[in-house]
Amino acid sequence: MTYDARFRVWRGDATGGDLQDFTVQVNEGEVVLDIIHRLQATQAGDLAVRWNCKAGKCGSCSAEINGRPRLMCMTRMGTFGEDETVTVTPLRTFPVIRDLVTDVSYNYDKAAQIPAFTPRARDGDGNHRMQQVDVERSQEFRKCIECYLCQDTCHVIRDHEGNKAAFAGPRFLIRLAELDMHPLDVVDRRAAAQDEFGLGYCNITKCCSEVCPEGIHLTDNGIIPLKERVVDRRYDPLTWLGSVIRRRPRD
Amino acid sequence: MTATAPRRTGAVTPGSGNGSPPPRRAAIAARHLRTDRWWIQPLVTMTVLLAFVVYSSFRAFQNAYYFAEPYISPFYSPCITTGCEGDTFPEFFTGPSFISPAIYILIIPLGLRATCYYYRKAYYRSFWLSPPACAVGEPHRRYTGESRPPLLVQNLHRYALYAALVFNVILTYDAVLGFRDETGEWGHMGLGTLVLLANAALLWLYSLSCHSCRHIVGGRLNHFSKHPLRYKAWTQISRLNAMHAKFAWLSLFSVAIADAYVFLLATGTISDLRFF
């Protein structure tokens, strides 16, 4: 079934821009990215859009569709009414380069600041060994495709540009959690999580979990456990006393 | 090994992490472009929470109609002053008569729910509008979250949990006392017994599904394989944890319903339906 859909697409760059109206053909089974491509091919040849795999795995085509952070390639046109106007805008949290393309280098900078994976010494035969049950939690976070939709929707930086210096965002808080929970890693990142990466800024309103296209439970399985680990070290007098008296290890 | 300093690179982009003036974002004036009814959820949350706060405050200050043999309202249990109706708990002291016995104890359940990770989401969104919904701009000009006082106190959630677990034992004991009749004879049961049992069960589910509980039981470990029992317990609590929000609401309703049932019995509005 084919119909003509009304689209409003933000067009412009860092000096300014606005929402422009288009009417474009939609075919059965298509996704928003197909329509953006048709716009490029038929009406707006210079429309800038970043995309790659078209399968929800590369994390390139992140945008805001009707105000909600989504992957354009994973948003079916069938979810909208035929008489509905579909609005597509660039990610609000990051500086715009042009049209739907934003500069996400904030994320690369934060990623580079995270203390790297540091495994314990190898076993006698030169191998690293770990049990599946021990590494399972970290593996959930490895599903991340770095689309940065969680970073985009996080109000800590979305609504407060000034917090970017102090807050790494949910994607990198779960990176810290992933490493801190890893059975082979020996670095204690709890103090850094609180002091350098702004864990305390997160008020766990769970928008990051709501928008994650990989279904990662960022808040329940990553950020809250990391907050609890920081409490162990920083705010729980009993745990602190236990660690002083018994010199107890982390396990 | 202790914490290492975060790595520093020379590639920090101006305005994207180092405090310099930011490059421009897309010029979109609207606070949001959502087309769904995003405001319904915070509105409903605020309405229900406010209704509970009003009702529970009224009942806590009322200092009457909280005991109808053999049932005691969960708002007043444990009843620890000599002014208490009934005899469900040791009376530790005599407080001023104008202070309701509920006032001394409500800090525990209030503390648990106020610092609960789920309720934090609920009230930050619905009362503080921070944010009211995902990708909807918040009205505040500054935001520091839970990084400084007074919200740093949220980190003491686990202590509220410990205290609440003791309360759960007491409320379960209250439910068991419900297997008596009006004369104190055991082996009886009424609708009130079921109400108190359901309330105690939901409070246990709410407390045990708590994120802090999940952490304490096993989440803090990095090697589950060395602690098989704790891993099994963590796995079960993780299953409950997925329903934490549901238990948070159900237990809130069950506390109010249990109190209302005792209130109706104590005022003589209804009589208890006795099964045997």
Looking at this protein, list some descriptive labels.
heterodimer; A: 251 residues; alpha+beta; Ubiquitin-like (UB roll); Fumarate Reductase Iron-sulfur Protein, Chain B, domain 2; 5-stranded mixed β-sheet; two-stranded antiparallel ribbon; 10 helices; 16% strand; elongated; B: 276 residues; mainly alpha; 9 helices
Describe this structure in words.
- The complex is a heterodimer of chains A (251) and B (276).
- Chain A has helices at residues 32-42, 105-113, 132-141, 149-153, 155-158, 170-181, 190-195, 207-211, 218-234, 237-245, and strands at 3-13, 16-26, 62-65, 68-71, 85-89, 96-98, 101-102.
- In chain A, the strands form two sheets. Chain A has a five-stranded mixed β-sheet. Chain A has a two-stranded antiparallel ribbon with strand order 6-7.
- Chain A folds into two domains: 3-101, Beta-grasp domain (Ubiquitin-like (UB roll)); 105-245, Fumarate Reductase Iron-sulfur Protein, Chain B, domain 2 (Orthogonal Bundle).
- Helices cover 35% and strands 16% of the residues of chain A.
- Chain A is elongated.
- Chain A has 251 residues and is an alpha+beta fold.
- Chain B is mainly α and 276 residues long.
- Chain B has one domain.
- Chain B contains nine helices and two strands, in the order H-E-E-H-H-H-H-H-H-H-H.
- The radius of gyration of chain B is 24 Å and the shape is globular.
- The termini of chain B are far apart.
- The chains are: A alpha+beta (251), B mainly alpha (276).
- Chains A and B meet through strand 2, helix 2, helix 5, helix 7 and helix 8 of A and helix 4 and helix 7 of B.
- Chain A: GO terms for molecular function: 2 iron, 2 sulfur cluster binding; 4 iron, 4 sulfur cluster binding; electron transfer activity; metal ion binding; oxidoreductase activity.
- Chain A: This is Succinate dehydrogenase/fumarate reductase iron-sulfur subunit.
- Chain A: Its cofactor is [2Fe-2S] cluster; [4Fe-4S] cluster; [3Fe-4S] cluster.
- Chain A: One of its GO terms (biological process) is respiratory electron transport chain.
- Chain A: Belongs to the succinate dehydrogenase/fumarate reductase iron-sulfur protein family.
